[in-house]
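User: These chains co-purify. Model them together.
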Amino acid sequence: MKKDLKVNINGEYYEVSIEPNTTLIGLLRDELGLKGTKENCGVGRCGACTVLLEGKMVYACLILAMQVEGKKIQTIEGLGGENQLHPLQQSFIDHGAFQCGFCTPGMLMTAKGLLDENPNPSGEEVRKGISGNLCRCTGYVRIIEAILDVADKMRR
Amino acid sequence: MKNFEYFTPKNVEEACSLLDRYQEEAKIIAGGQSLLILMKNRLISPKYLIDIKGISQMDYIIFDKQEGLKVGALTTHRSIECSSLIQGNYPVLSEMETRLASIQIRNWGTVGGNLCHSEPAGDVAPVLIALKGKVRLRTKGEERIMLLEDFFKDYYESVLKPNELLVEIQVPKSDYPNGAAYAKLSLRENDMAIGGVAVVVEIDPPTGICRDTRIVMSAVGPTPIRAKKAEAEVIGRKKKDISPEAVAQSAKEEAQPISDSYASEDYKREMIGVLMKSVLNQAWNKAIGNRY
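Assistant: Joint model of the two components:
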């Protein structure tokens, strides 16, 4: 039986009626058409589906949509768009921090969550911070550089 | 994932009533970081899902010098990791959390859910058992408190009754200076343990003699295992009189690992010995450092 759900995604209020077994990633992609967030492993190991829930990074594949009732979600669509890239997005471009791009939305949301919590991270803290996100292309070095560069620019 | 009827009780009483009504047909979901994987793989398909994640009265960390630590079952791993109360009084718990899965999982997963999942490779249980941790279990009309050591029954099985809810974790305050340490072998730093060892030692300050110790191994049996023979090699001795080799040997004999895709039985047993020596040494040094 469908249940009603109210949720705030990227500052917009949504009211939907969904099956209880819908995951948060299912809500975002299939119900609301927000396909920027990617689903890969579906079991909380790869990090591709990372979004911010009340400002904290979580895996959208391992949360029931019903569990975010009344809460605030930020996805890659809320980070920045073609016309105004978020500094993290620009930095990923400048540093060549992605190749295939599949991990990128999750990686960017993780980076956002990390910098919101710790605006001045060490290299080690960035490594630990993104350790819940897999990237099979870059070898991580450029991703780490891109994040550290944003932190550095924000300080100045 | 099969569909289910979904409930969001407002408080512990409502949750217990629902559990009492639906018994085996219901499952509790907290953070769901383990449960949803089982449900997605259709290893379990509950008819009724009772979502307690929103019950804020079960999310707290309280510390009292006499009574020790009380943690609500819905406290997230990340809250434990970052709590100054826990960092100050039970640093081993916070340190253990830094290597439990990813930040994403720690942000949403709860300590109570982790224990109820009864994964023998879990990181929380061995440390809490070593700290003489207890769990408070509620049903509709009753409540019981038991040692966490007695909570686990088999692989992914606990003694929790179908109508019972884990509501609180308690850690008593030690009367003697103690030191605690935990280490695990894992593929990557934040992966599940292939083998783990938690040690708490209590030292009698004037003599430097070990009053008591608790040595708990994870991932090498159907539940976390107390290495009681290894403990006997430590209790009543000063550090210089302890043979780390003998302690490690006892622990290796008490471990019951099985071969899997990560490591062979022999390798796991060997690594328990290696971890044992290192963790005992760390715990002892911390105990001496904590002299008061």
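The mean pLDDT of chain B is 96.
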